[in-house]
Amino acid sequence: EFARRRGAGGLAWAVVEDSGALRSPLARHMSDAEIDGLLRATAARPGDVLFLGAGPPVPTRELLGEVRVALARDRGLVQAHGTPRAWSFAWVTGWPLFEWDDAGERWDAVNHPFTAPREADVDTFDVDPGAAVARAYDLVLNGVELGGGSIRLHSPDVQLRALAVLGVGEQEARERFGFLLRALSHGAPPHGGIAFGLDRLVMLLAGAGSIRDTIAFPKTQSGADPLTGAPAPADPAQLAEVGLRPLAPRPVD
Description:
Blueprint: H1 2-5, E1 12-16, E2 22-23, H2 32-42, E3 49-52, H3 57-74, E4 89-93, E5 98-101, E6 106-109, E7 136-141, E8 144-151, H4 156-165, H5 170-185, E9 192-196, H6 198-206, H7 236-241
């Protein structure tokens, strides 16, 4: 039911019996070799339960990630909020460099188009974009992302190749990012960084249940600002100063 509420058709399951056999509605459709492969891939032991999803990789992984967190909270393995019993830090690395957009039929940058691939993928990332790994990293505390960053591309030639994977040709790249390519051509060294969300850290320290409890001027879920009343209508004269004019709302079908 949890999976269905999030738009999935359902959630497959399998139980590893004491004998090592797999009990599941899927088992009758699987060969012995496939069952053995599943058990090896998951390192499942007798008494373990497996939950499996099928579908496009990105939404299926996101769904299974939500299921994992929901199960952990249901079993009391993690705290939803309140003063934590322990502080558990983790670095998340090995992010993909690109992901395929089925709707647009193109590759998109997972982080941003200026992220460097790991050294082992520098020569091949534009040949096999789906296998390329980014030099990107996130710092997580108790399941909350505190900050993230990456090592940037510093070679103009490699930067052009990365943009080409995203469908940006050299001429367009020089028109849109000429300032960056010229800067890199002057010998910019390898560089990178990380940005932290201090409001998220304060949320954890305070035991709050929402980041909106620790942001000075939080927005509502619709993006409105209760303090300033934004977004608010703009005066036509103000719009005219920047070359804009309001359009009548289009009817919704």
